């Protein structure tokens, strides 16, 4: 059988791509090396921030707006809450320059007319008693932003894909991928599948199938997530506290977090590191006690009040990041029939329905719903010297 679209990797992007292609009536099959949603890739850990004023660049605003429409559609179809609209608070130093995340966010919000407020340290203390800003800090507040529930989102996309006729093969890694005339051949342990087009959304494993071409553009980084016990749960519940991103100095002096989304589950907080690379097969999966202590003492103490240093839970997760943090959505170097969509650089979840849809449309030869020029290979710098 010749499929119209075969999707390799059914995480955030691949589940959305499969659902999008199936909804358009294509004969589709999706493969995953595990049984998604799972905890070994880039899409687990309970929550992901979504916000409309994307400081990462103006090219992402149409993408997130399209995604927001698609999240609403998926919520209506599934009857589930997928996005907690808590608002987002982004804190920065009001004396900082263009590198400041809050300042860049404000600029994008003004450019695209995103509803927002600018808050002083005193405003924040009054409205969100969980946080203490220093006198030179200020905040951007976006009321319609919030927290996506990633495991639910992926499960809903996969259920919908199946309902629309897609085949799903869990625990079935794609071992090889080759262009063969008017089709692409994908070999698994048990069979060889053929499709007119392939979407390669294998996240941190993409280099296994794409080799050096991808490895030059994207690297894998281990990240640590910690859930701390609030000493005042009332100021951290999702009805009162927003998601937050806080830059309190240069370089890696920043962190982000979420309200307590399940009572007693703790407040999830994380920072990010882009200096030590990993691979998904060799990465250390547990979290050392000193990593949690360092996160608390270096970033949270004195800023996020009403949070105790008592660690309730910790996990690791993987970023697949390009040198400039930009996405990659383009044909594979060896075939226009293979669309690569997986370098989401730590900010991809919110965009995954629109990116998945873009990949599905590309695979089906239809025009994209959003402009993808900013995400081509040629737009991404290389890690190669
Ligand atoms: C700690 C952390 C925090 C983040 N926070 C945010 C946030 O707040 N907001 C935001 O928007 N984004 C955030 N991101 C980024 C976002 O979560 C990722 O960009 C997104 O989830 C990546 O999705 P993906 O589909 O590319 O990868 P994944 O979801 O990992 O999917 C890849 C899939 O491919 C499968 N696979 C791999 N190889 C094969 C193969 N050979 N054959 C078959 N299947 C294969 C894997 O099993 C996996 O299921 C965060 C990421 C991390 C790690």
Q: Strand count, sense and closure of the main sheet? A: 9 strands, mixed
Bound molecules: flavin-adenine dinucleotide
CATH class of the largest domain: Alpha Beta
Stretches with pLDDT under 50, minimum 5 residues: none
Q: What would the principal axes of the Cα set say about the shape? A: globular
Helix segment tally = 9
What is the strand content?
25-35%
Q: Which bin fits the share of residues in helices? A: 25-40%
CATH architecture of the largest domain: 3-Layer(bba) Sandwich
Number of domains: 2
Radius of gyration, rounded? Answer: 21 Å
Which fold does the CATH topology of the largest domain refer to?
FAD/NAD(P)-binding domain
CATH level-4 homologous superfamily of the largest domain: FAD/NAD(P)-binding domain
Q: List the secondary-structure elements in sequence, H or E.
A: EHEEHEEHEHEEHEEEEHHEEEEEHEEEH
Write down how many β-strands occur, each being a DSSP E stretch of 2 or more residues: 20
Cofactor: FAD
GO molecular function, one term: sarcosine oxidase activity
Organism: Deinococcus yavapaiensis KR-236
Pfam family, one: DAO
Describe the structure.
This protein folds into two domains: 2-47 and 150-216 and 324-379, FAD/NAD(P)-binding domain; 88-143 and 219-321, D-Amino Acid Oxidase, Chain A, domain 2, CATH 3.30.9.10. The protein has nine helices and 20 strands. Strands 5, 6, 7, 13, 14, 15, 16, 17 and 18 form a nine-stranded mixed β-sheet that branches. Strands 1, 2, 9, 10, 11, 12, 19 and 20 form an eight-stranded mixed β-sheet that branches. Strand 10 and strand 11 form a beta hairpin. The mean pLDDT is 95. Helix content is 25%, strand content 29%. With 385 residues, it is of the alpha+beta class. Helix 1 (12-23) runs parallel beside helix 5, helix 1 (12-23) packs across helix 9 (352-363) and helix 2 (60-78) packs across helix 5. The protein has helices at residues 12-23, 60-78, 101-112, 121-127, 150-163, 206-210, 212-215, 289-300, 352-363; strands at 2-8, 28-31, 48-50, 83-84, 88-93, 117-120, 137-142, 146-148, 167-169, 176-180, 183-187, 192-200, 219-230, 243-247, 254-257, 267-270, 277-278, 307-321, 329-332, 335-341. The chain binds flavin-adenine dinucleotide. This is Monomeric sarcosine oxidase. Its cofactor is FAD. Keywords: FAD, Flavoprotein, Oxidoreductase. It comes from Deinococcus yavapaiensis KR-236. GO terms for molecular function: flavin adenine dinucleotide binding; sarcosine oxidase activity.
């Amino acid at each position: 059988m010749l499929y119209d679209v075969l999707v390799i990797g059914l995480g955030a992007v691949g589940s959305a791509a499969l659902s999008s292609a199936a909804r358009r009536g294509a004969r589709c099959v999706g493969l995953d090396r595990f049984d998604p949603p799972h905890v070994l890739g880039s899409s687990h850990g309970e929550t992901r921030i979504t916000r409309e004023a994307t400081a990462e660049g103006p090219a992402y605003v149409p993408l997130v707006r399209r995604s927001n429409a698609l999240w609403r559609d998926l919520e209506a179809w599934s009857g589930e809450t997928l996005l907690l609209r808590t608002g987002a608070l982004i804190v920065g130093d009001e004396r900082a320059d263009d590198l400041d995340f809050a300042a860049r966010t404000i600029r994008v919000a003004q450019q695209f007319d995103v509803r927002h407020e600018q808050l002083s340290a005193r405003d924040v203390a009054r409205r969100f008693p969980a946080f203490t800003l220093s006198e030179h800090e200020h905040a951007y507040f976006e009321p319609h932003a919030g927290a996506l529930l990633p495991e639910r989102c992926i499960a809903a996309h996969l259920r919908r894909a199946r309902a629309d006729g897609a085949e799903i093969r869990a625990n079935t890694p794609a071992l090889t991928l080759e262009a063969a005339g008017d089709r692409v051949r994908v070999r698994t342990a048990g069979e060889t599948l053929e499709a007119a087009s392939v979407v390669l959304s294998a996240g941190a494993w993409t280099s296994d199938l794409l080799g050096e071409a991808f490895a030059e553009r994207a690297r894998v980084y281990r990240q640590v997530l910690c859930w701390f016990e609030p000493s005042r749960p009332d100021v951290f519940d999702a009805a009162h506290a927003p998601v937050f991103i806080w830059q309190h100095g240069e370089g890696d002096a920043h962190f982000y977090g979420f309200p307590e989304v399940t009572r007693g589950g703790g407040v999830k907080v994380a920072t990010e590191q882009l200096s030590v690379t990993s691979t998904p097969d060799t990465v250390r999966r547990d979290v050392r006690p000193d990593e949690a202590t360092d996160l608390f003492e270096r970033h949270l103490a004195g800023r996020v009040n009403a949070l105790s240093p008592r660690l309730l839970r910790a996990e690791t997760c993987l970023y697949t990041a390009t040198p400039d943090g930009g996405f990659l959505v383009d044909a594979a170097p060896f075939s226009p029939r293979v669309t690569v969509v997986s370098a989401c650089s730590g900010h991809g979840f919110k965009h995954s329905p629109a990116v998945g849809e873009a990949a599905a449309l590309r695979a089906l030869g239809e025009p994209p719903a959003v402009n993808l020029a900013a995400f081509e290979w040629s737009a991404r710098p290389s890690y190669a010297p």
